[in-house]
Amino acid sequence: MEFWRWPEASWVNPDINWKKGKFITAGVDVGSVSTQAVIMVDGEFYAFGNTRTGSDSPNSAKKGMDYALGKTDLKLDDIDYCIGTGYGRVNVPMAQQTITEISCHARGANFMYGPEVKTVMDMGGQDCKAINVDNQGKVLNFLMNDKCAAGTGRGMEVFANLIHVPIWEIGPRSFQISREPPSISTTCVVFAKSEVMGLLEQGIPENEVIAAYCSAMAHRIAELLKRIGIKEKFAITGGIAKNEGIVKRLEKELGIKTAEQVWCNPKYSKKNYPFDTQLAGAIGAALFGHELLKMGKVRSIRG
Amino acid sequence: MIIVGIDVGGQNVHIVLKKDGLILGKGTTPTGIKKAEAIEALYDQVLRQAGFSRRDVDRVVATGSAAKRVSFADGFISDVAADARGVSKLFPNARTIIDVGAEEGRAIKVAPDGKVIDFAINDKCAAGTGTFVEAMARALEISVEEMAKMALDSTKSIPMNAQCAVFGESEVVSLIHQNIAKPDISRAVMDAVAGRVGSIVRMVGLESDVMLIGGVAKNIGFVHSLQNNIEMDIIVPDDPDYMGAIGAAEAALSGNLE
């Protein structure tokens, strides 16, 4: 069993008839670990696919898009404009242009969490970025760590494999403890592996070791946020946002609440549309496409 | 006088037994998770090999990142001091000592009398350590020994983007997918480690003779890449991985211990 394997997902909005829409736009976010495609109809959330990135980016982009289209009766040719983003954005064959994932995550977080968001933390597979944004979701400044796996989703995957615990159980299990243990002291994921093995060997309960690793990761992310100057409302995007073991400990270290993971749009929250923090980049990209079409800055390529 | 130096490193324990200035016994074993047990077993093995028992030993000095696990040590010495002592004793002309081990890289500037003038250490990150090389060898599905020799056959230099060992593994896999030859990937890895080590060395300054010790000094491909990086000749002693233990044994004679 591969413990790092998080579940893939796709969804279509039952309340939208795309045929009545004016502009159909797509955003494809090819990350180092996961790929998301989001389709929007006139700037409304219509469909998504969330898949793992394979060894080559063009195929991953296609797989993500096929996944998003899968539950719809929409074809790729029906899409007016597609924007690629993420680490593999230059390898999105169906995209007409690319926009950096920093801009897309900022824009996506604004759409998902609301215009009050001032700081966005994107916790991705191979990097983490702290982004300060304005009320339009425009990037004011950002800091990123892409040099080191500590504090990234990949680091968590390595840990899940090492300790043989499915990655989605890490968060809940990190709270099934009788005392909060001291954090893992090594920063480097590779060294942390030996430290973790040592702790298990000493008979420290597995859940405490999980808690110790979550604290270390939260601390690593907190350092980046302290440097950029974190402001509320503070929102987290990316896969690690789904790990409450890290999010809760990050809140504690910073003494700040993270925005609740619900749609700011009451129409969406009432209908319980899936709120997937990994979608922020692709949502941002699809929204940029919609704005560009609406302003007449780009032309539809619809067949 | 019978003295013993024990170096408990991130990956291996090294023990040296000396009598009247001569090395009569030595041995190494993986540190493993049960460090104390590994140390005890190796100590007994070295004693047997030299024909002594624990009672015959006058002093035991330990060094290395887990030196405190040597419960029977009479004293301790820092790994930087052990390196400086061990190398200066055998190579009095050494002015710069580079020690690249499994989990640490360090550069030490020493005075002619073997005193430490300055040093710099990376123990925070696996980049620039033996662990990085091992992880990349695993990704290449070859042994570190094969990789070391293979790097010398490389015909072109490819830069590695990843500094992190975790990201490096994915990069090596993607280089394999791009059909880059294994010797060229091997060299890219050695160059990357040499780049990290080189930057630590430049923090203390380079002066000849430059000595390279630690387990990674046995990696010929790395030695080559590091020479290119620092643009100076490097001397690798016999048994470069035993220098810390030898230094600890030397310290047993002097009495300047923790």
Summarize the structure.
The complex is a heterodimer of chains A (303) and B (258). Chain A is of the alpha/beta class.
List keywords for this structure.
heterodimer; A: 303 residues; alpha/beta; Nucleotidyltransferase, domain 5; 2 domains; six-stranded mixed beta sheet; globular; B: 258 residues; five-stranded mixed beta sheet; 8 helices; 10 strands; 41% helix; 21% strand
Structural class, judged by helices and strands of chain B?
A: alpha/beta
Strand order of the largest sheet of chain B: 3-2-1-4-5
**Overall domain count of chain A:** 2
Structural class of chain A: alpha/beta
Sheet with most strands of chain A: 6 strands, mixed
Q: Considering the protein shown, what is the CATH homologous superfamily of the largest domain in chain B? A: ATPase, nucleotide binding domain
CATH third-level topology of the largest domain in chain B: Nucleotidyltransferase, domain 5
Mean pLDDT of chain A: 93
For the termini of chain A, the CA-CA separation is 44 Å
- What best-fitting shape of chain A do the alpha-carbon axes yield? globular
